[in-house]
Amino acid sequence: MNIKHKTSPLERSRLQDEAHLQSHQMWSRRDFLSAFGLFSARSLALGNSAIHVFQPNPLWAALANGNTDRILVLIRLDGGNDGLNTIVERNNPSYYNLRPNIAISDNQLWALSNQYGMPFSTFPLQPFWKEGQMKTIFNVGYPQPNYSHFRSYDIIASGSDSDVVLNTGWLGRFLDNEYPVFLETPPSVPPALQIGVQADLIFRSDQLNMGLAVSSPQEFYSIAQSGQLYNTTGLGNTARDQELAFVRQTANAAFRYADSVQNAYNRGKNQVNYPSQNTLAEQLAIVARLIKGNLGTQIFMVKLAGFDTHAQQFDFHQNLLSKLSEAIKAFYDDLSIGGKSLPNKVLSMTFSEFGRTIYENASLGTDHGWGTPVLLFGGNIGQGFAGQYQDLGNPDPLADPPFSIDFRAIYATILQDWMGAHADVVRYILGNQFPIIPGLVPSTAPESSQKCVLLGHNPHPGNTGVVQIKYAMKQPGQIRLQILDKAGYPLRTLVHEFKPAGSYILEFQPSEWYLTPGNYRYRLQSGGQVFERNIKL
Description:
The protein is of the alpha/beta class. The chain has helices at about 10-25, 30-35, 60-65, 95-100, 125-130, 150-160, 170-175, 215-225, 240-255, 260-265, 280-290, 315-340, 405-420, 425-430; strands at about 45, 50, 70-80, 90, 110, 115-120, 135-140, 190-195, 210-215, 300-305, 345-350, 355, 370, 370-380, 380-385, 405, 450-460, 465-475, 475-485, 490-500, 500-510, 520-525, 530-535. The strands form five sheets. Strands 1, 2, 3, 7, 8, 9, 10, 11, 14, 15 and 16 form an eleven-stranded mixed β-sheet that branches. It has a four-stranded antiparallel β-sheet with strand order 20-19-22-23, with no helix packed on it.
């Protein structure tokens, strides 16, 4: 027997007050303003999901309107993709001995060459290979691998060594350091766009995240069609509804990218049928439409999940590869209709946090392993292989064969040859010098008008209270490096002399220059150009 409890007016009032208080705790105006970058960069819920809006960095005004019109699309294969069943070394008896149940037979492969093939599930990629728009990089990894999904992905996203924790991403550092010469004017174009991915470490810089992350295609369509994050209709006249209306209206007004996203979405059209029930295809359809609509964003990121194939791998993994291949084929077919040269301007790159073991397990799957291939598409890259395939001839029963290409060498190549970053900037971004992979992608020259580069700063790793300011001279010249107050008035001149071309680190101790703790700027001048950055001492 159900007994309904009647609440008194006093109790109802108390419950309403508690709900209102909880609403305030979850959605105070200060929290809201913080969420939208009026105080700092945060995130905020949209329906049952989350959309993240980040205050953009000024250099994106340059990227959106700069000399390069090249676009990079990152395709994350979430879970750890099995490389040996993605690219198969044909007629290798060791492969079939290691995987008696899940190996792919030679009559189920289409040929990349006499030595290597891909399963028929990936046959939509065959035209890319044939037409010179596809390359594969074998056995990509890093020293001392970590087999945790979360930690290994952080390593891949940040570009760190396995024993170093970085809170910034490789592209976040690129975006924060490549063009410090431009004025601090926020662009109306999303600096980077992620679809189906929560705010990602890859795009995080020291102070903010450089990307607009939409957690599902459905959320993106809502924004693109209405130009609003939140629906403001249907709210009542209660204090709570009025406050919610205020928050939503302010959110919609603060969404910097509404006009540019909506306009590009309306200008661009999808002109092919994308495969149904394919989440990657849904995401790439949006990317294609925005590219064809001339949004101006240069870096996109999408995701296909499910690659953690511990059990019953064969059919499941082949289905994932089929979705990947069909989505990429539709994406580039769509771009081709937008202009014959457009696919040559769009480079797509797959990546995963690690590979799988070379042995199959007792559950007819594979476990977390070391190297995995990276696939490149578009960009007029030609066809070919890089790296060395895993040596399966003398397997270690306790470990996988060593990797052949450090993932950061791929990053360095993409940054320098595809994005046009200067070698000094690439070395600074990655924290070390990694070899450029010759001929991997068509190279573009870095911006030649810059005489020097203000790379940034960081605390001295072994000397408390000392700051390292890093810069590079592309050609010899007179330079002046100064500390400024917040209003831009010069306070101290740290360097004023002629410098040869090269990279430099100035070790600077604020107390020795009688500078009190606080917020400052520093300015590098050379060759008639001015570079400035904020610094907290």
